[in-house]
């Protein structure tokens, strides 16, 4: 999911970036792996803990109770699973839990965002595009090992929603750039094509006009190491509730939409699903995350995903 047409014709022609909201960028892989700085680099943002994926952005994250010798986690969007396992995005209603995966994730230099190494995702702890748009990967390395090797640190996932008017920063590992604005509102329900998300985060303008490739970027409370959500979509052409054109639905069922509005998804619900030893248990009484049925949880996730990527 990602919003807004890229304004520069030069960037479009050179990189072949797809501009659709759900779309992942089409820049060749060697661009990501070999680039020292992006044409879109934006100075002044801290990349400590920001992660680059082959098609999206992400962040190294911890729970509030995580320990240094726990296996580390990386947060990105559910739709960023596309292309990582030979499949597309999880269909509405599909939830993927505790599934093995092999995916390289790129660690960035905190100061300039240059790639300094990689870590290996070995498990999808949780992934969905239903109710939220989130993937949590478990990686083979511990937090201590990553800090020792790369001198980077994990963000902490907040157990709260951001406040309206709160300053936020959205830092993209894919493009090595950042955005700054405020929370404009918490959206009761956000609809896009067949997907429905709840308690979404709407950004103020100007400042957070995010583009393709910033999908999965952390939404960071300004001046902190606290992640309050994950960046994912926006209304590109002013259409109503269609692909790349999400609409808002209030508690009374009234639908509104506006071209150019961008959004992220809440991640705080994960805390209602955590056991005392920091495992995700969707059967806990306070767990609000989408739950799978037997038919919705494939043993080989790519076999049930659509072949068309966005």
Features:
about 300 residues, disordered N terminus, 15 strands, mainly beta, 2 domains, single chain, Thrombin, subunit H, globular
Task: Please give a quick description of this structure.
By secondary structure, the chain is mostly beta strands. Helix content is 7%, strand content 35%.
Count of the separate structural domains: 2
The CATH topology of the largest domain is given as: Thrombin, subunit H
What is the top-level CATH class of the largest domain? Mainly Beta
Q: What proportion of the residues is helical, as a percent range?
A: under 10%
How would you sum up this structure, described in words?
The structure is a single chain. The chain has 310 residues and is mainly beta. The chain has two domains: 29-35 and 44-157 and 269-294, Thrombin, subunit H (Beta Barrel), CATH 2.40.10.10; 167-268, Thrombin, subunit H (Beta Barrel), CATH 2.40.10. The chain is 7% helix and 35% strand. The protein has helices at 9-15, 29-34, 143-150, and strands at 50-52, 57-62, 71-76, 95-108, 115-128, 134-142, 155-157, 167-172, 177-192, 195-203, 218-221, 226-234, 247-249, 255-256, 262-265. It has a 15-stranded mixed sheet that branches. It starts with 8 loop residues before the first helix and ends in a 45-residue tail after the last strand.
């Amino acid at each position: 999911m990602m919003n807004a047409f890229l304004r520069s014709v030069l960037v479009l022609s050179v990189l072949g970036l797809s501009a659709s909201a759900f779309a992942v960028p089409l820049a060749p892989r060697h661009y990501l792996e070999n680039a020292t700085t992006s044409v879109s680099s934006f100075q002044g943002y801290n990349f400590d803990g920001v992660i680059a994926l082959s098609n999206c952005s992400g962040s190294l994250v911890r729970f509030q109770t995580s320990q240094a010798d726990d296996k580390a986690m990386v947060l990105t969007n559910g739709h960023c699973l596309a292309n990582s396992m030979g499949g597309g995005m999880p269909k509405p209603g599909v939830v993927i839990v505790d599934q093995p995966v092999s995916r390289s994730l790129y660690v960035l230099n905190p100061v300039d965002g240059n790639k300094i190494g990689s870590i290996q995702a070995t498990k999808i702890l949780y992934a969905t595009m239903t109710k939220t748009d989130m993937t949590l990967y478990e990686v083979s390395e511990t937090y201590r090992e990553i800090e020792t090797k790369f001198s980077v640190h994990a963000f902490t996932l907040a157990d709260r929603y951001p406040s309206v008017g709160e300053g936020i920063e959205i830092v993209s590992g894919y493009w090595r750039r950042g955005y700054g604005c405020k929370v404009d509102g918490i959206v009761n329900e956000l609809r896009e094509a067949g997907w429905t998300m709840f308690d979404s985060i709407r950004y103020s303008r100007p400042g957070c006009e995010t583009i393709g490739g910033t999908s999965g970027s952390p939404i960071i409370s300004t001046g902190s190491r606290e992640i309050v959500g994950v960046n994912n979509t926006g209304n590109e052409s002013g259409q109503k509730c269609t692909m790349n054109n999400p609409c808002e639905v209030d508690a009374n069922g009234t639908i509104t939409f506006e071209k150019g509005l961008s959004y992220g998804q809440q991640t705080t619900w994960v805390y209602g699903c955590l056991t005392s030893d920091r495992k995700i248990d969707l059967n806990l009484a306070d767990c609000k995350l989408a739950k799978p049925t037997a038919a919705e949880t494939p043993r080989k996730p790519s076999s049930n995903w659509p072949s068309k990527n966005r």
